[in-house]
Write a structure and sequence with these properties.
Strand order of the largest sheet: 2-1-3-4-5-6
Strand content: 15-25%
CATH architecture: 3-Layer(aba) Sandwich
Order of helices and strands: EHEHHEHEHEE
Number of strands: 6
Low-confidence stretches: none
CATH class: Alpha Beta
Radius of gyration: 13 Å
Shape: globular
Mean pLDDT: 95
Number of domains: 1
Structural class: alpha/beta
């Protein structure tokens, strides 16, 4: 099974473009599901068997405090001038972990990667 990404509305389109160029299937909330709330996005992620890529820290609350299950979340923290670096880190994580990203909450910065089991 090829890993799919669901890019939240806040994801810089340069990241989406780079992932797609490398053959990673990316569904974009901004392109296809504008206005969807967090719960709808989590449900979409499950339905599409896609890892959620976001800059919205609220998803950490959803998975840890509200115990949302059967999802994988990649949370990005970076400065706007680090888009290329963060895109490279995302690709590295996808290539190394692939489907192991399901049921994980991954925080990616330009300096480190942290992964927690859900």
């Amino acid at each position: 099974m090829q890993l799919k990404i669901l890019a939240d509305e806040n994801i810089d389109f340069r990241i989406i473009k780079k992932l797609r160029k490398l053959g990673v299937p990316v569904l974009s909330v901004l392109e296809n599901f504008t206005g969807a709330n967090d719960k709808e996005i989590l449900n979409l992620s499950r339905r599409e068997s896609a890892i959620l890529l976001t800059e919205d820290s609220d998803f950490g609350e959803w998975v840890f405090a509200y115990k949302e299950v059967n999802v994988g979340v990649i949370f990005l923290r970076y400065k706007k001038d680090e888009v290329e670096k963060i895109a490279d880190k995302i690709i590295k994580v996808i290539n190394i972990y692939k489907s192991e990203l399901f049921n994980k909450f991954v925080v990616i910065t330009t300096k480190k990667i942290r992964m927690r089991e859900l």
